[in-house]
Write a structure and sequence with these properties.
The complex is a heterodimer of chains A (588) and B (223). By secondary structure, chain A is an all-alpha fold. In chain A, 63% of the residues lie in helices and 0% in strands. Classes of the chains: A mainly alpha (588), B alpha+beta (223).
Chain lengths: 588, 223
């Protein structure tokens, strides 16, 4: 019903008389909200990176004054020398910012908002105001988390996983307000994700344009839709756990305090019951967008569309029954370890299917290496490494040895940086023209890509070797251990590579800002793609379409023999196409 | 600096390193297949004027092949891994003749309790030493792990053994050292600001050396 009402409403782009505040700040337009998420989460990405640089300084050069570290207060780094209590704050906040305030909002907050209405052919989200609240609760959470770095005892010190009782009892961690603010900020994030997910699910189910059947949806929309379901079911668990943790911290409850009859492992079960679906929240949208971009760059239909959809669904389903693989050596019943191992290994199957289908898409294609395509192919190449290294830790006996070592750090960065971030470096320039009306600079985009690809591998690949040597995670000074002292040159090498990797990202940021004003103007369809969003002007106007488009085919009709060009938009009516049944339209 | 796993010093190293190598071979094949394939496609199918991509929506046969092979491999790997998992961590895996040692972890030290002359924990001749774990070589050891405060984790890389120590839980873990020497025990679960220096030395000794050490240490502890 909502769509029928919306469709009769004219949404003319030319007389947009909203005030500046309504248009750009408290906007209910899904595209502006997506762009708000983009700016804010790019800022948090930078914050997360800066925290990582300080960690890498300490690991490479333990006890030496950090260049520029003099500006930090004595509670963090007196004379520029990082303190152990500051180091574990860096560890905690790097993970927290990157996962909750950078990667997750960049993938979901930005692209679920921006792409879903544009790609399914509707004027806006099902609940635009709820959508606005989703952004503002996210921002509130981010601000609280950022402020927690500057309270007297400093930020949370318990790792992004906040294992109790370290996180619950102030006498154990040495931080009080910082720990509490962590819980509060996460409750905000949970709320934001729940509101967003509700919206994405409702919109995809109800507001698809006439003719946009389920199996004509682009894989990016499928992935974002399934991700939203994961978010809707997983984030309440995290929020609930964070509320319990906050109660333990400030109200004197003892959910997690074993000295008072609480359960320490309860937190881990709750956290990872959220946390493993979360891992897929952080990769499925990347997979979806990369699928769109690889098909476009190969000028070929996506290989095995339906098995790609089923693989997304399978990953999402299996994602609910693997959380115990984070807990093989936690003291959980080892028999449970056996079943979690099998479900974890099986999740490699849909991941393999997706990889082979991306390769199948490139096979006999006509590959055009634009910046989005380069990054998308790098996503496949790097995600494979992260996926395969996961098999080592899925095998319980091997996990007993490599758990909580740098092998895990290498693995998760191959998935989150090599996977999610490369996908974002593909997605940002790809949809940039639809957001801002201009293209990002191609040459600098390529320079950024190649340098990132190089320094990224130099940073994270050697971490596998450190992990195999038994290098523990989250230790402030590896040289304390005699068996790790010979590995110090490798730590120095990783740190230098990480600094160069960080410096390379400045190219991206400059390109991003410079192109906003100076980039080459983009026409409707700069990548010659079939999606509905490319039928709109760049940037897309408020309300998107005056009349929602009619869809005649799937999004991947590239190099179709039916037309002379190598693309065939979803909205183009060929003489053989029938109008979608009126019944279909009425159902929306 | 070695680019491989640490030296082998317990009975677990055989199965664990073996599995590691097996997975390395399996994943290595997949890795080479995918990366070489990608590079080949990037070169072979690069855009050239006048050619059009091959129009296809996929192949069910290919999907079946590349679903089945990974599925069979993964299930087989799971079964093999589980065999060793049950031997190492299973509920009944602790050998009956295992020699008991108590480990109480607290921020940021290891309190190691030895059973004394009677070989039993919880009796009057037990004694405790800080940050020193002595074990006889070739003898299964069963650790009773407890924590004073937060979660810690017992980890000796050369033994490939790790077990989290959870407050409020009494957790048992076992291992059998095979090579006499000095090793390091590290905490591998973030436990607070002193996490990085929560380490102890591990001495694997012959039975005679161990007995002599214990006699002397028991005397010193009772002073």
């Amino acid at each position: 019903m909502t769509t029928v009402a919306a469709r009769t409403q004219p949404a003319p782009p030319h007389h947009d008389d909203r005030s500046f505040l309504r248009k750009y700040i408290f906007s209910t337009d899904h595209k502006i909200i997506g762009i708000q998420f983009l700016f804010v989460s790019l800022f948090f990405l930078l914050v997360g990176g800066l925290l990582a640089m300080q960690m890498r300084w300490q690991l490479g050069f333990p006890g030496k004054p950090m260049p520029g570290g003099g500006i930090l207060p004595d509670t963090m780094a007196p004379g520029g020398v990082i303190l152990p209590e500051y180091y574990i704050q860096l560890v905690t906040m790097h993970g927290t910012f990157m996962i909750f305030f950078a990667i997750m909002p960049l993938l979901v907050g930005v692209y679920a908002n921006f792409l879903i209405p544009l790609k399914i052919g509707t004027h806006d989200m099902a609940f635009p105001r709820i959508n606005m609240w989703s952004f503002w609760t996210f921002l509130a959470g981010g601000v609280v988390m950022l402020l927690s770095l500057f309270v007297p005892d400093g930020a949370s010190r318990a790792g992004w996983t906040q294992y109790v009782p370290l996180s619950a009892r102030h006498d154990y961690s040495g931080a009080s307000l910082g720990q509490e603010l962590w819980s509060v900020a996460i409750i905000f994030v949970g709320l934001s994700s729940i509101l967003g997910s509700l919206n994405y699910i409702s919109t995809v189910i109800n507001n698809r344009a006439p003719g946009m059947t389920w199996f004509r949806l682009p894989l990016s929309v499928w992935a974002l839709f399934i991700t939203a379901i994961l978010g809707l079911l997983a984030l309440p668990v995290l929020s609930g756990a964070a509320i319990m943790l906050l109660f333990d911290q400030i109200l004197g409850t003892h959910f997690f305090d074993p000295t008072q009859g609480g359960q320490a492992l309860l937190w881990q079960h709750l956290f990872w019951f959220f946390g493993h679906p979360e891992v897929y929240i952080l990769i499925l949208p990347a997979m979806g967008m990369v699928s769109d971009i690889i098909a476009n760059g190969s000028r070929k239909p996506i290989f095995g569309y339906r098995s790609m959809v089923f693989a997304i669904v399978a990953i999402a389903f299996l994602g609910w029954i693997v959380w115990g693989h984070h807990m093989f050596v936690s003291g959980m019943n080892p028999t449970l370890g056996s079943s979690f191992m099998v479900s974890t290994l099986v999740i490699a199957v849909p991941s393999a299917v997706k990889t082979f289908n991306w390769m199948g898409t490139m096979w006999r294609g006509n590959l055009k290496f634009t910046v989005p395509m380069l990054n998308a192919v790098a996503f496949v190449a790097m995600f494979v490494i992260g996926g395969l290294s996961g098999i080592f830790m899925a095998a319980t006996p091997v996990d007993m040895f490599i758990h909580d070592t740098y092998f895990i750090v290498a693995h998760l960065h191959y998935v989150l940086f090599g996977g999610s971030l490369f996908a974002l470096f593909a997605a940002i320039p790809y949809w940039y023209p639809k957001m801002f009306g201009r293209l990002m600079h191609e040459g600098w985009g390529k320079v950024h890509f190649w340098l990132t690809f190089l320094f990224y591998n130099l940073t994270f690949f050697p971490m596998h070797i450190l992990g195999m040597a038994g290098h523990m995670r989250r230790i402030y000074d590896p040289t304390q251990y005699v068996f790790l002292q010979p590995y110090q040159p490798m730590n120095v090498f990783i740190s230098v590579s990480a600094f160069l990797l960080f410096a390379t990202q400045l190219i991206f940021f400059v390109n991003f800002w410079w192109s906003l004003k100076r980039g080459q103007k983009a026409d409707l369809n700069p990548w010659q793609d079939n999606g509905l969003e490319w039928t709109l002007p760049s940037p897309a106007p408020h309300g998107n379409w005056e009349r929602v488009p009619t869809v005649y085919r799937g999004p991947y009709e590239l190099s179709s023999p039916e037309v002379t060009e190598d693309y065939l938009p979803q909205t183009r009516k060929l003489p053989t196409d029938r109008e979608p049944a009126a019944a279909t339209a009425a159902r929306h | 600096m070695s680019w491989w796993l640490p030296p082998r010093a317990s009975t677990f190293t055989g199965p664990i390193d073996g599995l590691f190598i097996a997975i390395l071979i399996i994943t290595g094949i997949a890795f080479v297949l995918v990366e070489v394939g990608l590079i080949w496609f990037i070169w072979r199918y690069r855009q050239r004027p006048g050619r059009k991509a091959f129009y296809t929506h996929g192949s069910n046969r290919a999907e079946v092949i590349w679903t089945t092979i990974p599925a069979v491999t993964m299930v087989a790997l799971g079964l093999i891994s589980n065999h060793y998992w049950v031997e190492i961590k299973g509920r009944n895996s602790i050998p009956a003749n295992a020699y008991p040692i108590g480990i109480h972890a607290k921020q940021f030290e290891w309190q190691v309790t030895y059973p004394g002359a009677d070989g039993k924990l919880g009796t009057g001749d037990d004694f405790t030493v800080r940050n020193q774990l002595h074990v006889p070589v070739g003898q299964p050891i069963v650790l009773s792990l407890s924590s004073e405060d937060v979660i810690h984790s017992f980890y000796v890389p050369q033994f490939r053994v790790r077990q989290d120590i959870v407050p409020g839980m009494d957790i048992k873990a076992w291992f059998q050292a095979t090579v006499p020497g000095t090793y390091e025990l590290g905490c591998s679960q973030l436990c607070g600001l002193g996490h990085y220096r929560m380490r102890a030395q591990v001495f694997v000794q012959t039975q005679a050396d161990y007995d002599a050490w214990m006699k002397q240490a028991a005397q010193e502890a009772s002073k």
